[in-house]
Every structure is written in structure tokens, then in C-alpha cells.
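Deviations from the work plan: none for this task. Representative record:
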Amino acid sequence: DAKTTQPPSMDCAEGRAANLPCNHSTISGNEYVYWYRQIHSQGPQYIIHGLKNNETNEMASLIITEDRKSSTLILPHATLRDTAVYYCIVRDERGGADGLTFGKGTHLIIQP
Amino acid sequence: GAVVSQHPSRVICKSGTSVKIECRSLDFQATTMFWYRQFPKKSLMLMATSNEGSKATYEQGVEKDKFLINHASLTLSTLTVTSAHPEDSSFYICSAPTPRGVGYTFGSGTRLTVV
């Protein structure tokens, strides 16, 4: 799986959009970009994933650059409950045969 | 849908005793489950892959005789920490691939404290 680079921490004001960047310059053609988050003392939660098109669901939007070397997770209206560590993970689709490799992620702190 | 229930959420045990952690898929079947460990302020580390009806596969450096994994049914995997020591104190988390094949669903974790 390709390596990812994320800033260790970010602050965002409540109600504003939180934009979390991720670099994955060695991503290969069959690898997807996945985002998970982990609220303190809980298990991780799947947020969204994409291959090359931008994606949106009820939780977030995922913007992937045309060269696929980086992406941005957008939480459109951050709330205090969005404070968590956000993990960007790149991997190919192998039907869940392998576990995930978590990096250090970005600790997003939503300020009131 | 696709809920993984993990129990207990918190356990304190004495050094030298064994602790069993259960991971259940509530509304789907999971032939494969994964066990992770997370130390304070660190990221999750994959410990082992639990395979229904066959032996678990362990990541390098994880002692299979210390961390016993049993996946006896399509909805239940257990992790037993044997002869626990204070250095085994950690947050243990299980997960399973979602039935839709998109991502993974995780249990809520078990905080193990060995005293």
C-alpha cells in the first residue's frame, strides 16, 4: 500500500469547513483513497473513499487531484463532535483480505 | 447495518491472569476479522488476522502463544491475552470487512489494564 503524509494536527472553528489534506504521491492506478476517523477511546469509523472522482456522502466530501497524488477530506460544517484523529489510507481493493495500515493521522481539534 | 460489537469495553486484571475479549458481527457474517492494538498516543497496529475455521495469521513480532485467537463461527472471534503483564496494557480493537465490500467496520475497543 502506498505511503501517505498528513499534518499531525489542525484546528478549525466550529461551524466552518474543515479541510484535511493528504499526500500520497506514490499511489498506483488500482489504489483507492480511504478516510477513517477515531474519536478518543473509540474504534475507528469509516468516512469515505474514492478512486479518482470526487465523492460526497452524508459525512464528508473527498476531493482527489487529477494526478491522484493528493486528496482533501472536507467536513462542510464542523461540530465539536468532529474532534478526532483522521486517517488517510491508500490501498487496493482486495475484498478485505488484509488489515489496514494506519499512519499517524491528523488530530483535528474543533474549537468552539 | 454492519455493526461489530466488542466486549468488554474495559477490563482490569492481575498480572499472570488471562483475559478474553469478544468481537461479534451483529448483522452480517465475517469469515475474516482483524485485531489491532493501540498504545497511548500511538496509532493502531495490526496484530493478527482471524480466519473462521482455520488458524489465525499473526503480524511479525506478535506472539501467537500469548495472544490466542479463536474464530469458531462466522459471527464471533475472540482474543485471549494469556499470562498478562503490565506491558500488555493497551487498547484492543477488532474489525471486519463490511459486507458491501467497502471499507471496514470496527468494534468500540477494549481498554485492558494489567496491574
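The radius of gyration of chain A is 13 Å.
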